[in-house]
Amino acid sequence: MICEWTVTENAWRIEDGLYRILLPLGWDVPFVNAYLLESDGQYMLIDAGWSSRTSLRALGRALKAIGVPPRGLSRLLLTHSHPDHAGAAAAVQSHWGGSVLLHPRGRRERPSVAQMGEWARAEGMEGEPLERMLAGRHEPESALPDVIQPLETGQLQFGDFSFEVLHMPGHAPGQVVLHEQRRSWVFTADQLLTPLSPNVWYQSHGIGDPLGEYIESLEATGRIPADLVLPGHGAPFHGGPRQAAQDALAFQRDYIAQVATCVDGQPRSSWRIVERLAAVEGRRAADPAELAEVLAALVHLEADGAIRREEGGWAATGTSRGEGD
Ligand SMILES: [Zn+2]
Q1: Please, what is the Cα angle at 165 between 205 and 19, to 5 degrees?
Q2: Whole-angstrom distance, CA of residue 33 vs CA of residue 211
Q3: What are 18-75's pLDDT values in tens digits?
Q4: Distance, CA 233 to ligand 1 centroid (Å)?
Q5: 5-253, which class in CATH?
Q6: Residue 322: what pLDDT?
Q7: Predicted confidence (pLDDT) per residue in 88-137, tens digit
Q8: Which residue spans within the chain are E strands per DSSP?
Q9: Can you give the pLDDT at residue 199?
Q10: How many Å apart are CA 298 and CA 260, to the nearest integer?
Q11: How far apart are CA 172 and CA 170, in angstroms?
């Protein structure tokens, strides 16, 4: 645990020039953290929160209580483009000013509902689960501002602060982690979420091996020599990122092994494997939202050579044909 000084009901001062602002989300993860840095009367905000009036009001209240003047932000840095972190970027910029920084790989288009449907069907999902998945989707809104400065790997100076920007893809293609070496702080975005690991998805616009990228990023995060860890969700903590990175790695390795047990000699679609995984875990029905996550594990197992994708779906390499369902 750390010591935080209350500024207002959703904002705390953690250290000189470092504030945490808690913003509400509309779903099962209840809150996201934004962090505000102050140096010589200049302000930089890390993450903007969800695009909702409730979240914008909560942010406005906190910034006022801290003493940020109208249009007083110099910079708005987005750790990644997921809607809980970047959704309000355009609105925050228009109220509070500041240039917006995001890693170039964070600027990819989100798929439309029609593209999501095509993708899920191609992965074997149909009928009720498909309808349920599409019912929860909305057409992508362009929440990002038009002008964005590319946030590249390397040193980033802000007043008295000096950050090393580290590209940590996996959870999101353009996710960055910020290491303030002199103060021994690390802003870990969604790289580490205690007690659970963040999700890693392979979606309709998927490329490469996101889970493989995440595992590599996680190992690198665990080696960052910082004391104070400032995550995107949950309370900051002292003691460095090592243990949380190891826990997340163990979680992902178990998950990959579990998915691997659902693949045998008989080719099956990705959605059939999601259903088998639900059965192995003793759940009555598979959740359509799991498709992208299971697919990330399958793509990773394929990259490792443990399974292959053939006409009828995923099958284990070098095993005898299974007994079927
Ligand atoms: Zn998040």
Answers
A1: 105
A2: 24
A3: 999 999 997 778 899 999 999 999 999 999 999 999 999 999 999 999 999 999 999 9
A4: 7
A5: alpha beta
A6: 42
A7: 999 999 999 999 999 999 887 677 888 889 999 999 999 999 998 888 77
A8: 5-8, 11-15, 18-24, 31-39, 42-46, 73-77, 99-102, 149-150, 154-158, 161-167, 176-180, 185-189, 228-231, 307-310, 313-316
A9: 85
A10: 8
A11: 5
What is the whole-number distance in angstroms between the Cα of residue 272 and the centre of ligand 1? Answer: 28
When computed from its CA atoms, the radius of gyration of the chain, rounded to whole angstroms, is: 21
| 3-class DSSP state of 294 | helix
How many angstroms does the Cα of residue 227 sit away from the middle of ligand 1?
22
Per DSSP, the chain holds a count of helices (H) and strands (E) of 9, 15
pLDDT band at 325 (very low <50, low <70, confident <90, very high): very low
CA of 235 to the centre of ligand 1 (A): 13
307-310 vs 313-316, strand pairing mode: antiparallel
pLDDT, mean of residues 263-274:
96
> How many angstroms separate the alpha carbon of residue 49 from the centre of ligand 1?
9
Residue with tokens 């910034």: 63
Q: Is the peptide bond before 195 cis (omega within 30 degrees of 0)?
A: yes
- In the chain, where are the structural domains located? 5-253, 260-316
- Distance of CA 325 from the midpoint of ligand 1 (Å): 37
Ligand 1 centroid – CA 232 distance (Å): 6
162 alpha carbon – ligand 1 mean position (Å): 24
Specify the 3-state DSSP secondary structure of 306.
Answer: coil
For residue 308, how far is its CA from the centre of ligand 1 (angstroms)? 31
